[in-house]
Amino acid sequence: MFTTQTTPALGIDYFGYYLLDSSGKVTSPTRLFSSSDASGTAASFSVGPNTDYGFYLENIQGQGTSLETDYWFYMDSTQDTTNRDITLTPFQHVAVFQNGATDYYLGLEDCISSANNSCDHDYNDMIVKMSTSAAAVPEPASAIFVCAGLLSMGLLLGRKKFDHK
Fold first, then answer.
1. Which of 19, 57, 87, 89 has the fewest Cβ atoms within 10 Å of its own Cβ atom?
2. Taking a C-beta distance cutoff of 8 angstroms, is the pair 2, 130 a contact?
3. Could you read off the pLDDT of 99-157 as tens digits, one per residue?
4. pLDDT digits (tens, 9 = 90+) for 49-96
């Protein structure tokens, strides 16, 4: 769930997840939220077992102009990149906070470089709440066994009532 964006004047931010290929390279970035979305906007995604994935923050400065610059900040900061010839100083743009057993908050920092100490490192430029809990959906075979068990119990209880009369 998208929670908040504190600095929309600095550009627009997008949040999403990405997969890693067998060599550890970022593939398939998928957007989930934009800083222009309303707080409380929800999105979901799923990845298969043993799938390597992470989260990213994309920051776009000067959107729609000839000076537009896109920055992609990944959980693995060594993979941070831009669409221009700009050297990025790798630093962590994502902080993870746990709240209870199933809820996590991702605090994201959209600062471009910490080389000149111009970043505030407050990790509140975008905040995303993630929940690992999902409604359990029984498999069809399990549902059949549960129904058969309930039916058997009902028949046995009905039979006992009939035998006692």
1. 87
2. no
3. 888 889 999 888 876 565 667 788 888 888 888 765 545 455 555 555 555 555 555 55
4. 999 999 999 999 888 888 889 999 999 888 999 998 887 877 888 999
Q: Residue 63 and residue 86: Cα distance in Å, rounded?
A: 17
| Residues in Cβ contact with 139 at an 8 Å cutoff, skipping those fewer than 6 apart | none
- Give the list of residues 6+ apart from residue 34 with CB closer than 8 angstroms, or none: 12, 13, 14, 15
User: What is the structure's pLDDT at 31?
Assistant: 95
Q: Which residue type sits at 160?
A: K
Show the tokens assigned to 61: 């400065």
Whole-model pTM? 0.71
The residue among 66, 63, 62, 115 whose CA lies nearest residue 88 is 115
Q: How far is CA 95 from CA 14, 77, 108, 139, in A?
A: 16, 12, 6, 36
